[in-house]
Automatic annotation (TrEMBL):
Record InterPro entries: Extensin-like_C
Domain Extensin-like C-terminal residue range list: 94-164
Naturally occurring in which organism (per UniProt): Shimia marina
Protein name: Extensin-like C-terminal domain-containing protein
Length: 250
């Protein structure tokens, strides 16, 4: 086993706490032109609706999030899932002098998406709507280094947390990144392996087979990781646009 003790990626290395990475803060009313709704007050709003937020966020984070959601929404439309009309969040920026990325206005908790036909995608549905979950996650991974999801730990069973505290790219010792890799290998590229977030020989073998098929070098190189994510998104669009197959896998 290459690593039986994956490092948590929820917190940044200490050397990122300096003032040199402070960016201007701006107030946003939408991302990719879509309003952001806070869906945790009351709790029964979770996954359905909420009240509009106009959060203050770090400028660089806002640009990355805007682009990620734009591309995600194009993908969801292309896959026939629908047109997104609201983004549901359980929290973005927090006040106070804490050292977490929410306090630094560089993090977002994604609870769900509302579509123009009234349907919703909710972040607690990984086991029943895996392809929607993975296509949303893949787009976030193209734009953000830290993406914490279902299966990472219990805190992330009802939302996807993302922030820009960590560089974009694949690392074997990152549990969250390995979990995505394993899910993609298993559900998109039909490799048989356990999805436990630990990068071992089984994962390595499956990864090599799929990289050979995609003609890709090591995923630790950012371009290759991005190509792997793009190939995953293409596979997801294809599977999502074939309802019979989605059903068979869910
Ligand atoms: Zn969070």
């Amino acid at each position: 086993m290459e690593t039986s003790n994956p490092t948590p990626d929820a917190y940044p290395p200490g050397n990122l706490f300096g003032k040199q990475d402070q960016m201007p803060i701006q107030r946003i009313k939408a991302l990719a032109g879509v309003p952001i709704l806070y869906d945790r007050e009351p709790d029964s709003n979770y996954g359905h609706t909420g009240y509009p937020l106009r959060p203050y966020v770090d400028a660089k984070f806002a640009v990355a999030a805007d682009r990620a959601f734009q591309e995600m929404f194009l993908s969801l439309a292309a896959a026939g899932v629908g047109e997104v009309t609201s983004i549901l969040t359980g929290g973005i920026s927090r006040s106070g002098g804490g050292v977490g990325y929410h306090e630094r206005k560089r993090a977002f908790d994604l609870d769900g998406l509302v579509f123009s036909d009234g349907q919703t995608w909710v972040a607690n549905s990984f086991n029943t709507r895996r392809f929607e979950y993975l296509i949303i996650e893949a787009h976030l991974r193209r734009a953000f280094g830290t993406v914490l999801t279902y299966g990472y730990d219990q805190r992330f069973e009802d939302h996807i947390h993302f922030d820009n505290g960590d560089p974009i790219g694949f690392r074997k010792h990152s549990k969250s990144r390995t979990l995505f890799l394993q899910n993609a290998l298993r559900y998109l590229f039909d490799q048989e392996l356990e999805c436990d977030g630990t990068y071992g020989p089984e994962t390595q073998q499956a990864e090599r087979a799929v990289r050979a098929e995609l003609n890709l070098g090591a995923l630790s190189i950012r371009d290759n990781w991005d190509h792997f994510l793009t190939a995953s998104i293409e596979a997801l669009e294809e599977r999502l646009s074939m309802p019979a197959i989605v059903k068979a896998f869910s």
